[in-house]
Recover the amino acids of this structure.
C-alpha cells in the first residue's frame, strides 16, 4: 500500500474514533448528570477530553513510528505501525470513557493539554534557531575536516574550481588544487555593505530628523509609510533594478571621469542596497528621536540655542544608542542580503579596493555553491555552509548588540513603544 | 549690563543660517528617498508595461503534407520567420489530432516572433532590412499589430520570450503560500498566545522572546541552508517542491506573525480578561472566547504583512531548488514548482533582450499583488482599529 | 469679569495699569518686563485674558493661583516658549528693553538668551556635568579659551551652590546626580549664559523638602544678579522667597501685590480665599 493511502486510512479511522469518543463521552456525561449527580465539568468538556484521549496518544505513537521508520531506518512494517496506532487510539477511547466520572476535572485536564500544545508551538521557534545552527555547524565541520580553518579565514584565493575532481577521487588530475581562502569574499561583502551604508545612513538619518523635528504633522504621517514601501519591495526586484538600470549608469559616469568600470561593479548593488535599507534606518531613528523627552529640547532652546543646535548637540546625542542600534541592524541586513548581489555583483573573487571592479560576496558564493549540479559531499558545496556559519555568527552578534543598545535607550528614557 | 538684543541677533546670524541649512538638508534627504522611489517605479513601469502587449501577425496557414512534418512549411516562406516558433511547432501536432485539416487553408492571427515584437515596440531587435521592410508593409496593411498579451497570463515558462508567461509561477506561489500560512499561522498565533497569556515570566520565557527577535533578523539565505540540510537532506522532503519552499518560508514568517499577534493581544485591555475571569471562565476560555476575537484584526493584519514578505522572498527558495524551469502548471505540493520572484530571477538571467521586458512585466505583477496585500492590511487595521 | 476682579480699579493708591497694589520699599523698582493687554488662545479657548503687569529687575516675583489658571502659560510667554506649541495665538504687548518680544522680527533665540528658564522637572542634557554648563556659553562665544571656560563653569556651579558637591566628578554624566542636585545643575546652566531674567516653572515641585530649602536659599542669593519670575503651587514658598506676588485665576491677574501685603492683607476676596486654602 502507498504511504499516502496509509495516511488517509489512518486519518479516516482516527476521525471516526474521535467522533465516537465525542458522542459517547457526551452521552455518558449527560446520563450521569441526568441521574442527579453534580459533576466537575460540562458534558461537552468530558466529550472533548475523550477525543483528546483517543487521538493524542495515537498520533504520538504513529509520529514516533514514522520517525523511526524514515530516519533511523528501523524495520517496522508500515501496516503494523498503522494497526498499532489505531489500537492505541481504541485503548485511549476506552480509558477516556472511564474518566467520565463526576469527580474528574475534565476542564482542568483539557486546559493542561492546551497549555502543553501552546508551549510546544513556542518551542518551535527555538527549534528553528537550533535547526539553523545545527545544519550549518555540522556541514561546516565536515568542510573544515577537508580544508584547514586557518586557511579559510586568512587565505586570499578562493578557487573551488577543482574540488569536484577531488570529490570524485581524482584530485591529481585537477589543474590546480582547490583553494578556499575566504578573504576576497569578505572584502567584497564589506565593500558593498560599506557603500550601502554610505547611502542609507546619511539619507535615512537626515530623513528621520526632518520627519521628527521639522516636518508638519501631515507630511510625517504620509512620508513614513511611503518610505517603508522601499523596504517592502522584493529584493529580487532590486537586483534586477541594480543590474539593468543602475549598473549601466554607474559605468557611464565612471567612463565620463575616465575610469574603467565593470558592469557588475560593486557600486551599483551597493547603492541599490542602500536605497533598500533607508527605511530601516529612518523608521527606527524617527521613533527614537521622537521618544527623546521634549524637556531636553526645551532645556536647550531656553538657553538660547537654535533649533539646529538643539538637534545636533542635545537630541541626537540622546538618541544615539537607538540610532547606532538601527545602523547595526541595517549592517546585519546588508551583510546577509543575497538577491541584489547575486544579480548585480560579480562572481569573481577579487581582493581589491576599487569599487568599480567586479567583486563577489559571501552570499553570492553560497548561492553559487548550492545551485550547480554538484555532489552534496563536495568541498565546494560544503564551503557554502562554512560561509553560512560565519555569516550567522556575524549577524547574530550584530543583532544582539543592537538589541542591548535599544534596551539601554529604553531604560534610560523609560519609553515602551520601541 | 548684558548685551542688547541687536548685538545678540548680530552674533546669531551665522548660527541661524546653519540651523536653516540642517532643515533644508534633512528635507532634501527625505526628498531624495522619495525620488529614489519615484525613479524605481517609473523605471519598472516603463520597462514592464510593454510586456502586457504582444505582437500578433495575420497569416494564411496551408495544412499541406510538408506541414505535417515541419510546421514552418504551412506558412509563406518569408512570413514564417516572423511567426513564433512555438506556434509553428504546434501545427504538426494539430494535424495529427485532426487529420481532416490536411489540404485545408485558414487565415488566422497568430503570435509573432519576439524580434518582430521588439521591433514594433521600438526596442533593439535582430531583424534584417528585408524583414523590417516586410513588417512595415504588413503593419501598413493592418496585418501586424500589438495586442493585449493574454499569453503572458495563461502559460508557464518558455525558452521563447513571446510564449513565456507567469501562470505556472503564480500557481506555484499560491501553493507555496498555502503551505506557509498553514504552518506559520497556527504555530505563530499559538506561540504568541502562550507567551502573552500563559507563560510565567522566567528566564526560559525570556530566552524564547530573545530568540524570536533574533530569528526575525537572521539573513533569509540561512533559512535556505536550514531547508536544504534539514528538510531536504534529513527528512527527505522533495526538492524544488512547494512543500519544502512553503516550510522554509513558514519558519521565516513565524517571527513576523508572533510579534504582530503579541502586539494585538497586548492591546486587549486587562479589564476584559478580569471580567471574563470574574464570571468563572478558565484561562483558555478567556483567551478563546474573549481575547482572541478582539485581537483577530491585528493578527490578520500582521499575518498578511508576513505573507507579503514571504511572497517576495527569493534567496532561500533558490537554495531549496525552486528556480526550476517549469513550463507546465503543476498542482501538486510535492512536484517541482517555481514562484513569481524565482521566475523573475530566472528571466533576469536570460540573455535575450525580449526577456528584460518579461522580467519587468513579472515584477509589475508581483508588485501589484504585494501592494494589494499591504493595502488590505492597512485597510483592515484602519477599519478595526480600536482605542481602549 | 467682575468689577472686583480687576486690580486696577481696586484702590486709589495704585492708579497706574500693571503696577502692584502696594509697594515693597526694600525692593528694586527698575522695570524689566512690561506686559500690556496680553491675550493668548489655544485654538479656540482663551487661556490668558488681557493681562497687564510690570515686572521689576533684581526681584523675585511669584506667580500663584489654582491649577490651570494660566500662570505657567504666562511665564512661557516671556521667553516665547509657547511658539513650540502648535495652534497658539498671542496678542498684546510683552516689552523688554524697549522691544516687543512677540513681534515676528524679534529673534526668539536672542530673547531666550536673555531670558533663561528652569523647568519643573530637572532636565540635564545627556552630557557630563561640566559640559552641561560649558556648552551654552561656548556656543554663545562668551568664552573662548579653556581656562576661561573652566573658570566660568566653576563660577556658575559656585553661584548655584553645587560646586563643593560636584567638583571631583565634573566629568560624570549630569544624570548621575540626585534630583535636587540636578535642578541646581539646571540653574547653574541657566545662569552660566548670564541672562537678565530667569523664569522658574515650579522649580521645586518635583523635589524633597531639603532640596527645596536649598533652592529657595539659592533664589534669594541669585536675585542680587538676576530678575527671577517663579511659578509656584506652594504658598509658603511664595511667602518666603518672593518680593512681589501675582495671583492668577482663570487666565486673569486678580491681584498683584507686595508679597507681605498679599499674604497678610489681600485686597481681593478671591486671593484671600485661595491663600487661606478655601480652594486650590
Amino acid at each position: 500500500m502507498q504511504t499516502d493511502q496509509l495516511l488517509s486510512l489512518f486519518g479516516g479511522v482516527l476521525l471516526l474514533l474521535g467522533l465516537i469518543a465525542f458522542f459517547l463521552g457526551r452521552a455518558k456525561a449527560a446520563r450521569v448528570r441526568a441521574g442527579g449527580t453534580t459533576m466537575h465539568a460540562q458534558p461537552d468538556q468530558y466529550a472533548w477530553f475523550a477525543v483528546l484521549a483517543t487521538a493524542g496518544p495515537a498520533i504520538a505513537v504513529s509520529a514516533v513510528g514514522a520517525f523511526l521508520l524514515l530516519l533511523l531506518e528501523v524495520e517496522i512494517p508500515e501496516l503494523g505501525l498503522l494497526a498499532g496506532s489505531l489500537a492505541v487510539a481504541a485503548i485511549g477511547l476506552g480509558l477516556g470513557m472511564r474518566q467520565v466520572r463526576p469527580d474528574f476535572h475534565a476542564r482542568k485536564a483539557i486546559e493542561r493539554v492546551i497549555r502543553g500544545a501552546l508551549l510546544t508551538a513556542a518551542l518551535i521557534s527555538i527549534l528553528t534557531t537550533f535547526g539553523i545552527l545545527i545544519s550549518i555547524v555540522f556541514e561546516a565541520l565536515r568542510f573544515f575536516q577537508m580544508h584547514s580553518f586557518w586557511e579559510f579565514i586568512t587565505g586570499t584565493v578562493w578557487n573551488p574550481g577543482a574540488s569536484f575532481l577531488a570529490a570524485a577521487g581524482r584530485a591529481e588530475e585537477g589543474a590546480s588544487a582547490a583553494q578556499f581562502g575566504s578573504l576576497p569574499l569578505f572584502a567584497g561583502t564589506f565593500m558593498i555593505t560599506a557603500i550601502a551604508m554610505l547611502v542609507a545612513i546619511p539619507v535615512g538619518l537626515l530623513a528621520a530628523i526632518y520627519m521628527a523635528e521639522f516636518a508638519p504633522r501631515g507630511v510625517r504621517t504620509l512620508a513614513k509609510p511611503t518610505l517603508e514601501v522601499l523596504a517592502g519591495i522584493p529584493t529580487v526586484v532590486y537586483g534586477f533594478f541594480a543590474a539593468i538600470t543602475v549598473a549601466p549608469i554607474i559605468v557611464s559616469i565612471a567612463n565620463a571621469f575616465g575610469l574603467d568600470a565593470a558592469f557588475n561593479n560593486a557600486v551599483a548593488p551597493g547603492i541599490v542596497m542602500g536605497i533598500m535599507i533607508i527605511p530601516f534606518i529612518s523608521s527606527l531613528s524617527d521613533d527614537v528621536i521622537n521618544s527623546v523627552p521634549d524637556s531636553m529640547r526645551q532645556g536647550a532652546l531656553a538657553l538660547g540655542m537654535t533649533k539646529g543646535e538643539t538637534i545636533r548637540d542635545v537630541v541626537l546625542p540622546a538618541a544615539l544608542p537607538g540610532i547606532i542600534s538601527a545602523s547595526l541592524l541595517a549592517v546585519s541586513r546588508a551583510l546577509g542580503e543575497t538577491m541584489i548581489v547575486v544579480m548585480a555583483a560579480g562572481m569573481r573573487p577579487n581582493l581589491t579596493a576599487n569599487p568599480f571592479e567586479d567583486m563577489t560576496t559571501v552570499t553570492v558564493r553560497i548561492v553559487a555553491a548550492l545551485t550547480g549540479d554538484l555532489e552534496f559531499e563536495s568541498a565546494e558545496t560544503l564551503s557554502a555552509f562554512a560561509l553560512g556559519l560565519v555569516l550567522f555568527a556575524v549577524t547574530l552578534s550584530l543583532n544582539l548588540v543592537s538589541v542591548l543598545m535599544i534596551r539601554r535607550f529604553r531604560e534610560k528614557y523609560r519609553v515602551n513603544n520601541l | 549690563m548684558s548685551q542688547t538684543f541687536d548685538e545678540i541677533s548680530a552674533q546669531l546670524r551665522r548660527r541661524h543660517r546653519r540651523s536653516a541649512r540642517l532643515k533644508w538638508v534633512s528635507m532634501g534627504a527625505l526628498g531624495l528617498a522619495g525620488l529614489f522611489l519615484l525613479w524605481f517605479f517609473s523605471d519598472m513601469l516603463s520597462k514592464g508595461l510593454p510586456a502586457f502587449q504582444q505582437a500578433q501577425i495575420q497569416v494564411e496557414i496551408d495544412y499541406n503534407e510538408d506541414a505535417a512534418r515541419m510546421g514552418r512549411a504551412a506558412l509563406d516562406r518569408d512570413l514564417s520567420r516572423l511567426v513564433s516558433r512555438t506556434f509553428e511547432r504546434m501545427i504538426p501536432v494539430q494535424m495529427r489530432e485532426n487529420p481532416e485539416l490536411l489540404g485545408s487553408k485558414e487565415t488566422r492571427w497568430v503570435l509573432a516572433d519576439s524580434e518582430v515584437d521588439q521591433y514594433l515596440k521600438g526596442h533593439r531587435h535582430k531583424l534584417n532590412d528585408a524583414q523590417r521592410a516586410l513588417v512595415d508593409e504588413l503593419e501598413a496593411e493592418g496585418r501586424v499589430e500589438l495586442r493585449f498579451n493574454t499569453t503572458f497570463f495563461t502559460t508557464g515558462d518558455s525558452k521563447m520570450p513571446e510564449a513565456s508567461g507567469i501562470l505556472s509561477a503564480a500557481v506555484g506561489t499560491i501553493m507555496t503560500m498555502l503551505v506557509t500560512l498553514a504552518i506559520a499561522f497556527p504555530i505563530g498565533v499559538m506561540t504568541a498566545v502562550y507567551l502573552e497569556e500563559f507563560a510565567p515570566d522566567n528566564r526560559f520565557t525570556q530566552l524564547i522572546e530573545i530568540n524570536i527577535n533574533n530569528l526575525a533578523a537572521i539573513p533569509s539565505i540561512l533559512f535556505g541552508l536550514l531547508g536544504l540540510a534539514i528538510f531536504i537532506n534529513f527528512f527527505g522532503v522533495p526538492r524544488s517542491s512547494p512543500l519544502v519552499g512553503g516550510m522554509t518560508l513558514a519558519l521565516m514568517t513565524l517571527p513576523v506573525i508572533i510579534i504582530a499577534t503579541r502586539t494585538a493581544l497586548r492591546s486587549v485591555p486587562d479589564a476584559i480578561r478580569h471580567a471574563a475571569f470574574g464570571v468563572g471562565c478558565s484561562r483558555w476560555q478567556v483567551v478563546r472566547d474573549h481575547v482572541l476575537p478582539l485581537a483577530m484584526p491585528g493578527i490578520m493584519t500582521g499575518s498578511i504583512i508576513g505573507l507579503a514578505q514571504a511572497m517576495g522572498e527569493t534567496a532561500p527558495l533558490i537554495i531549496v531548488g525552486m528556480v526550476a524551469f517549469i513550463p507546465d502548471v503543476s498542482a501538486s505540493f510535492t512536484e517541482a514548482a517555481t514562484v513569481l520572484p524565482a521566475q523573475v530571477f530566472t528571466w533576469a538571467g536570460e540573455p535575450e533582450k525580449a526577456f528584460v521586458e518579461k522580467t519587468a512585466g513579472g515584477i509589475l505583477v508581483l508588485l501589484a499583488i504585494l501592494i494589494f496585500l499591504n493595502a488590505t492590511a492597512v485597510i483592515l487595521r484602519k477599519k478595526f482599529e480600536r482605542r481602549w | 469679569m467682575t468689577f472686583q476682579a480687576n486690580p486696577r480699579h481696586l484702590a486709589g493708591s495704585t492708579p497706574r495699569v500693571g503696577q502692584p497694589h502696594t509697594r515693597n520699599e526694600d525692593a528694586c523698582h527698575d522695570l524689566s518686563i512690561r506686559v500690556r493687554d496680553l491675550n493668548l488662545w489655544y485654538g479656540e479657548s482663551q487661556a490668558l485674558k488681557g493681562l497687564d503687569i510690570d515686572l521689576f529687575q533684581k526681584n523675585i516675583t511669584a506667580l500663584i493661583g489654582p491649577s490651570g489658571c494660566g500662570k505657567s502659560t504666562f511665564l512661557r510667554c516671556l521667553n516665547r516658549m509657547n511658539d513650540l506649541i502648535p495652534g497658539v495665538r498671542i496678542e498684546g504687548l510683552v516689552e523688554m528693553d524697549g522691544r516687543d518680544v512677540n513681534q515676528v522680527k524679534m529673534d526668539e533665540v536672542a530673547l531666550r538668551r536673555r531670558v533663561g528658564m528652569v523647568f519643573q522637572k530637572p532636565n540635564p542634557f545627556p552630557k557630563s556635568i561640566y559640559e552641561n554648563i560649558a556648552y551654552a556659553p561656548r556656543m554663545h562665544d562668551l568664552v573662548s579659551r579653556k581656562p576661561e571656560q573652566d573658570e566660568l563653569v566653576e563660577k556658575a556651579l559656585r553661584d548655584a551652590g553645587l560646586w563643593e558637591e560636584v567638583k571631583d566628578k565634573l566629568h560624570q554624566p549630569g544624570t548621575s546626580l540626585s534630583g535636587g542636585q540636578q535642578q541646581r545643575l539646571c540653574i547653574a546652566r541657566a545662569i552660566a549664559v548670564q541672562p537678565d531674567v530667569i523664569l522658574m516653572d515650579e522649580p521645586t515641585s518635583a523635589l524633597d523638602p531639603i532640596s527645596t530649602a536649598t533652592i529657595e536659599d539659592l533664589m534669594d542669593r541669585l536675585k542680587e544678579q538676576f530678575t527671577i519670575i517663579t511659578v509656584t503651587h506652594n504658598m509658603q514658598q511664595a511667602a518666603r522667597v518672593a518680593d512681589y506676588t501675582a495671583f492668577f485665576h482663570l487666565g486673569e491677574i486678580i491681584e498683584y501685590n507686595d508679597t507681605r501685603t498679599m499674604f497678610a492683607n489681600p485686597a481681593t476676596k478671591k486671593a484671600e480665599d485661595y491663600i487661606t486654602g478655601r480652594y486650590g
Q: What stands out?
A: The first strand of chain B starts at residue 53 and ends at 62.
